[in-house]
Amino acid sequence: MADSPRVAMVAGETSGDLLAGLLIDGMQAHWPGLQSSGIGGPQMARRGFAAWWPSEKLAVHGYSMEVLRRLRELLGIRKQLRERLLKDRPDVFIGVDAPDFNLGLEADLRAAGIKTVHFVCPSIWAWRADRVEKIRRSADHVLCIFPFEPELLARHGIAATYVGHPLAGVIPMVPDRAAARAQLGLSDDDEVLAILPGSRSSEIQYIAQPFFEAAALVLKARPAIKLVVPAVPALRERIEQAAQASGLGGAVQIVGGQSHTVLAACDATLIASGTATLEAALFKRPMVIGYHMHPLSWWLMRRKQLQPWVGLPNILCREFVVPELIQDAATPQALCAATLDWLDARGQQPQKIAALEQRFTALHESLLRNTPQLAADAIQKILAPAA
């Protein structure tokens, strides 16, 4: 086993696929003969991962009908996966994010004597304090991407290691704006607004329309501005429809994926709350964070909210360094006004932009570690007793 461990993994959504791909890099450096399989996406497949189901199957969000409609399918997948893993018994199971799917699976596997690791501590410090006991039952070890998390978990008797945030190593400290613009066919003189309405179907359903209506208002105020949208391939058609319904038509440049290129190229971004907001911060870009979900989902989330911020840049900086417009506040008019504030500041208040860039640079430095190696080292220690 020590020469070639068999690793089972489950990563949900685009962000989990990216994190898992980087983790596989680290493990392959330790174990060139690594075998990995389970649920994953294209980043993992590129590294030799055998996907039994695609990660997009787990891309659901919220508490209401959008999840309930898929619940039977998700439970069926988890049951089949559990049976397969209990039969084949990998050396370690690594659940990458997707806690609603992974923690229950990890608990069953751990009870059967299979080592379990959870990569990305659930946001017990923001939304889900009720998950602490579930994590303790489920994970032999938690790999944390924020520096304050291991101490918090230790208070509850949960072993954890801070491995830095993988994105901090992927995104350059000083992004190459000119190269990104050239790649997208934009000029250095263009004013560019990036629009990121999310990577989940439910996000496109609730967020895309107000975002594009806001962008149409921005375009009226600044007719020369370039609007660029990176779209997950599976959602591109729906994004195009939302843009057209907002009257933007051909005024929006929609590109397949390339969210990092778009963020590097932009002057500001209108962006859905989630991992993408941290990516925007690491690119040192001004942003307006917006979010909208099913009313029942929002009511349940509000009851669990432990702090005033929703966006990761604000949570990590412990203050509202960028505006957040959530649920009823996320009107096209309010989103437009907040976006125009950032665009105006580039010419009228350059010190405001410089201060934000300095804040985000400090945040980037605090998250920058050799994540693949640190994560693989932690996994090696977990496997060592069985070696």
From TrEMBL:
Which Pfam families does this one have? Answer: LpxB
What the entry lists under CDD domains is as follows: Glycosyltransferase_GTB-type
Which keywords does this Swiss-Prot/TrEMBL entry list?
Glycosyltransferase, Lipid A biosynthesis, Lipid biosynthesis, Lipid metabolism, Transferase
Q: Which reaction does it catalyse?
A: a lipid X + a UDP-2-N,3-O-bis[(3R)-3-hydroxyacyl]-alpha-D-glucosamine = a lipid A disaccharide + UDP + H(+)
EC code(s) of this entry: 2.4.1.182
Q: In which pathway does it act?
A: Bacterial outer membrane biogenesis; LPS lipid A biosynthesis
The source's domain of life comes to Bacteria
GO terms assigned for molecular function: lipid-A-disaccharide synthase activity
**UniProt keyword annotation of Lipid metabolism present:** yes
Show the HAMAP family listed in the entry: LpxB (MF_00392)
The free-text function statement in the UniProt record for this protein reads:
Condensation of UDP-2,3-diacylglucosamine and 2,3-diacylglucosamine-1-phosphate to form lipid A disaccharide, a precursor of lipid A, a phosphorylated glycolipid that anchors the lipopolysaccharide to the outer membrane of the cell.
Q: Which family does it belong to?
A: Belongs to the LpxB family.
Q: Give the protein's recorded name.
A: Lipid-A-disaccharide synthase
Species source reads Acidovorax benzenivorans
